[in-house]
Amino acid sequence: MDYITTFTGEDFTPLSPDVGQIHIHDIAHALSLMCRANGHFSRFFSVAQHSINCCNEAKARGLSDKIQLACLLHDASEAYLSDITKPVKNHLARYIEFEEFLQNMIYNKFLGEGLSEDECKQIKQIDDDMLKHEFKALMIKQVFNDVPCLYSNPSFEFLNFIDVENEFIRVYNKLTKS
């Protein structure tokens, strides 16, 4: 079998994806059930919560709706591929190619276009800044010496996955005026 069955019932082939089978409800559902830090935080904290926090940070920084939506979706490929820890992923060139291809397909579908180099840098900076705050709040030991200031006030509390999934969809609908 070379496909996964998604929450909405699609038989999705991650290595040769069909853009018509990519659905926001699959992304929101899957990411709300995936734990950040490969499950090594002191409590469950979902990829969807992280994505919502990144989106809120982009808004607090005065960035465009496009960048806010891109922040919400920046880990969306993980809904179909899962994620691999950086120390391992750095040695998996083919996986990185698949991930980048699928993530760009997702951006094109939901943003209507790809991202510029500058937009990618803004999203990466927010992602990295949020990661450092998550590690400060949810790791048992200090991992980063420098924790940058944020413009938003993110929540790192445990939330029910259904509430997180619904919030992800609500934010998506607001940004896309759906």
Cα separation of the termini:
35 Å
Poorly predicted parts = none
**How many individual β-strands?**
2
| Beta-strand percent range | under 5%
Q: How would the global form be characterised?
A: globular
- The helix-and-strand class reads mainly alpha
Average pLDDT rating: 97
Gyration radius, rounded = 16 Å
Tally of helical runs: 8
Q: What is the oligomeric state here?
A: single chain
The side-by-side strand order for the widest beta sheet comes to 1-2
The helix/strand series, from N terminus to C terminus, equals: EEHHHHHHHH
Secondary structure: helix percent? 40-55%
Question: What does the largest sheet look like?
Answer: 2 strands, antiparallel
Verbal overview:
The protein is mainly alpha-helical. It has eight helices and two strands; from the N terminus they run ββαααααααα. A two-stranded antiparallel ribbon has the order 1-2. Helix 2 crosses helix 7 and helix 3 crosses helix 6. The chain is globular. The termini are far apart.
Brief summary:
The chain has 178 residues and is an all-alpha fold. It is 54% helix and 2% strand. It has 8 helices and 2 strands, in the order ββαααααααα.
